[in-house]
Every structure is written in structure tokens, then in C-alpha cells.
Amino acid sequence: MKSAIKIISAAVVLAVILIGYTKLHKPDRGLPLTELRIGYQPSIHQVAHMISMEKNWWQDGLKGSGIEKITEHQFPSGPPEMTAMLAGEIDIAYVGISPPMTAIYEGLEAKIVAGAQTQGSHLVLRPDINYESPRDLEGLKIATFPPGSVQDTVFRKWLKASSLSAGRDLVIAPMGPGDAISAIKAEVVDGIFLPHPGPAIIEIEGSGKMVLGSGEMWPKHPCCCLLVTENLISRYPNLVKEIVRIHIKASEYAIAHPEEAAKIYAKRMGWAIEKVEYSLKTWDGTWVHDPHPTIEPALEFTRVIYELNKPRYTEYLTEKDLFDTTFYDEVTRLDRGKD
């Protein structure tokens, strides 16, 4: 009897050790994955992805993980991008930090594994509109990304803090970047609140003037992030580590070589290089990759989204609901060890 108890106890101890080990070093499971589907938007915020594509870093860096094909899917803003991820159409996404929150409320199983960019949007008004304070927006029609996006969330939070309300004091028109730029050019709207380079392009073409950066509305707010499905995280963790490593490499390249980042963006998006360079001179954005500084402000986003969507949403999302920093931490720890 005693020997049986010892055997059972030893088995339990071994099981605990193995569980702890596999949590740190999960093997890739399931059918081989040969295609990686990446969602992104036509914003300079997400230039890290464009650099990785242009320099073949995705293609070359993920071959060892079995990836034979990289497929890009471009979206006008974050909400439709998250609809695609909910439908299983993309595996990773460069996206604003708030659309995943609303999608997770709707059942999306995905985690933020790295930061991508902070701030970087501007309020632009027609040249004939004088702006001195938030009250000057009363009676105007402002185009921005759809509800749930970073821009819509930041703008509504700032309006509330300024004692203004959409619907009562002004009209917010949800639009993608192309439609919003066309709308202010045609004077269908009085202004736009968009990520760069849209605001700079509007100003340089004479259709509007930048009056307020998003960092002035919400200082140091996170904007874009790198989001990965739980399917990839649980079944292909080694692939996720390589995705994070390449993202860090591309982000560092953009930070160190902004002129080259501008050229790559201009080439891929079809904008004149002068307009893209003007955008980088006038935006208040910063490319980043460390997810840790974004956690606390991201939780502030969850509180804003919760307040804007009561009683539909019944509880706040937590750090555990949103983030998985283990891949970033392991990659940076291993890379530091190589130095």
C-alpha cells in the first residue's frame, strides 16, 4: 500500500513538473501551418509590417517555422479588421488597441503580444474654420473611424472631458480614411480625426489644417498593436515567437531609419514621398514594440469603452483578457543573451 502511494505521489510530482515545463515550452501541435494571413491598415502607424514585407523578413524569417506563403489583407480601419479575425480570415493583425477589446467582448479569442505605435492622429478642420477651443466644434460634422476604433474612442473621451457630446453638440460620421479625405475635400464634412498620413495629406493639399494632435487629447495613449489569435498561441508558439522577433526587428528599423520607412510606405501605398515625409515631420506618433508600457493605458481604454457601451458590456476587461507578453519577454531575453 505504501509503495503504491509512493508511486502515485511520484506520478503527481512528475505531472506537475511536466505541466510547468509545457507552459513554458509548448510544442507545436496539430496540422502543419503553411500560410500566415496578416491584417493591416493603410496607415504609417503600421509601417513595421510593410518593412517586413518589402525586405522579405516575413517570408525568410518564418520559413523555419514551416510558413511557405504570406497573405496580406488590407482594411480601412480596425473594426472591420476584427470582424475578419472573428470570422477566422486572418491570423495576426496590426490594429489599433481598442478594436480588439470590442471584438473580445464579442467572443474573439486573441491576445496583444507586442506594441506597435503610440499617438499619431490629428484633428483637421476646413481652412475657413477658426479653432481656439473644443467649443468651436459645436454644430460641426467630423468624420473619424467607426465606433470601437482608437480614433473614435479617443475623440469621444476628449469630447466628454470637454463637456461636449456627439449627437447633441456635433455630429460624428464614421468613415474609412479614403472616404474621410474625400469628404473634407468636397466639404461634405467640416473636419476629420484620422491617423497619419491622412491629416498631413489633407493639410499639404490645402483642404484643411491640423489643429490638435491626439497626444494633446490623451497624452501618451497607445494606438496600434500586434494581435495574434489564440489558435496560433496555443498550437504554434514557436511561430509566434518568430513573428514577435521579426516585428521587433522591423520596428527598430523604422525608428532608426525613418527616411527609409517613409520611402517604403510611399511606394506601397502610392503616396508622393513628399507627403509622407511631411506626415512624419508633423505627427506626434512614435513607433514602439514593447507591450508593457501600453498595459495600463490600455486598461484605461477598456474603461472608456465599457462606459460608452453600458449596459451591453457588463464588466471590465482585464490585463489577462487582453495581453500575452510571454513571447515578447522570451524573445527579448534570448536576444539580450546573444549580445
List key phrases describing it.
D-Maltodextrin-Binding Protein, domain 2; 339 residues; 2 domains; alpha/beta; 12 strands; 5-stranded mixed sheet; single chain; globular; disordered N terminus
Q: What percent strand?
A: 15-25%
- CATH topology name of the largest domain: D-Maltodextrin-Binding Protein, domain 2
What is the name of the CATH superfamily of the largest domain? Periplasmic binding protein-like II
Largest sheet: 5 strands, mixed
Taking all Cα atoms into account, the compactness measure Rg is 22 Å
How many separate structural domains? Answer: 2
SSE series = HEHHEHEHEEEEHEHEHEHEHHHHEHHH
Plain-language structure description:
With 339 residues, this protein is an alpha/beta fold. It has two domains: 28-119 and 222-338, 3-Layer(aba) Sandwich (D-Maltodextrin-Binding Protein, domain 2); 121-217, D-Maltodextrin-Binding Protein, domain 2 (3-Layer(aba) Sandwich), CATH 3.40.190. Helix content is 49%, strand content 17%. It is built from 16 helices and twelve strands. The protein has helices spanning 2-24, 47-54, 57-61, 78-86, 99-105, 150-161, 177-185, 198-204, 214-217, 230-235, 237-256, 258-269, 273-282, 292-308, 319-322, 326-338; strands spanning 35-40, 69-74, 92-96, 110-115, 117-118, 121-125, 141-144, 171-174, 191-195, 209-213, 224-229, 286-287. It has a five-stranded mixed beta sheet with strand order 2-1-3-11-4, sandwiched between helices. Helix 2 packs across helix 11 (237-256), helix 4 packs parallel to helix 5 (99-105) and helix 8 crosses helix 13 (273-282). The radius of gyration is 22 Å and the shape is globular. Mean pLDDT is 91; it is low at 1-29.
